[in-house]
Specification:
- The protein is an alpha/beta fold.
- It has two domains: 101 residues, no CATH class; 126 residues, 60s Ribosomal Protein L30, Chain: A, CATH 3.30.1330.
- The strands form three sheets. Strands 4-2-5-10 form a four-stranded mixed β-sheet. A four-stranded mixed β-sheet has the order 6-9-7-8.
- The chain is globular and about 55 Å long.
- The chain starts with a strand and ends with a strand.
Length: 281
């Protein structure tokens, strides 16, 4: 049995959240740079260059990439031979969120009561935490700072099985087209298919933790992801919704078995500042 001090978790989460809000992920920078080769619109290329320049300024001056520093979403995998000492996992993660956003001077965006008072919690807690028990003595924590603009444009639909693959492509395109400039394209698009209503939504969120250029190990699924991305980029939304070829930098799709009468599909959009980080303790 391995013992982990909760303070170690708190410190790691605080440090990682500051880092991902300031340093744009290398895979995102590479995708933005590569997209310049395929963007045909002069305005689109200019905007992509501005996004790259913005990420450079953020990194060099140690300021957030975007003023919306997001809601913290966590996927934690806990080894069944781990015992935490001190705080619970949820308490340790939220303590790290509080420290990271307070000491890192990041904008606090969480309200305690979502319906009536909507009073800010003051430290960007609580995080949205998903946990999974795995064999062994590892603790893996994946964190994301999810912007409100892109989250607000995400959608779920219960398709009919007869709608098939084309129905999924059409729904993703419908979501992106209706979203327009609001989620700050170029986008990373997470698609969850199968399970139940809530499972599809969870899969779509989890898909956003993959790099934009992640290669699906299943050839048929990899081709389907590419088909969706081509359809999205043919919409003409373009960088920041100003028109052009590059609306999506990547499409990642995760599936789960479902009922014979169901085809749940969730689309979770992420802006070009796809902020996520990996911690292994």
């Amino acid at each position: 049995m391995r013992e982990i001090e909760s303070k170690i978790i708190e410190d790691a989460v605080a440090e990682k959240l500051v880092k991902i809000n300031i340093d744009l992920d290398s895979s995102m920078c590479a995708s933005l740079q590569k997209s310049l080769e395929n963007e045909q619109s002069p305005l689109g290329r200019e905007l992509l260059n501005q996004l790259l320049e913005n990420s450079k300024v953020a990194r060099e001056e140690r300021v957030p990439i975007c003023q919306d520093t997001g809601i913290v979403v966590v996927f934690a995998k806990i080894g069944d031979r781990i015992r935490l000492k001190g705080k619970t996992l949820e308490e340790a993660i939220n303590a790290g969120v509080s420290r990271g956003y307070t000491e890192g001077y990041l904008r606090k965006s969480m309200v305690a009561d979502p319906i009536f008072q909507r009073k800010n919690t003051g430290d960007n807690t609580p995080a949205v935490i998903h946990t999974e028990i795995i064999p062994g003595e590892k603790l893996i924590i994946e964190v994301a700072a999810k912007g409100g603009g892109s989250e607000n444009m995400s959608r779920l639909k219960m398709l009919k099985p007869a709608d098939g693959p084309q129905g999924i492509v059409d729904f993703v395109c419908e979501v992106v087209e209706k979203a327009g400039p609001n989620p700050c394209p170029p986008l990373v698009i997470g698609v969850g298919v199968g399970g139940t209503m809530e499972k599809a939504a969870l899969l779509s969120k989890k898909a956003l933790f993959l790099p934009p250029d992640a290669q699906n190990p299943e050839p048929q699924m990899a081709a389907f992801e590419q088909e969706i991305m081509e359809a999205v980029n043919n919409l003409g939304v373009g960088p920041l919704g100003m028109g052009g070829r590059i609306t999506a930098l990547g499409v990642n799709l995760l599936t789960y078995p479902c009922h014979i009468a169901s085809l749940p599909v969730a689309v979770n959009l992420n802006c070009h500042a796809s902020r996520h980080g990996y911690i292994e303790l």
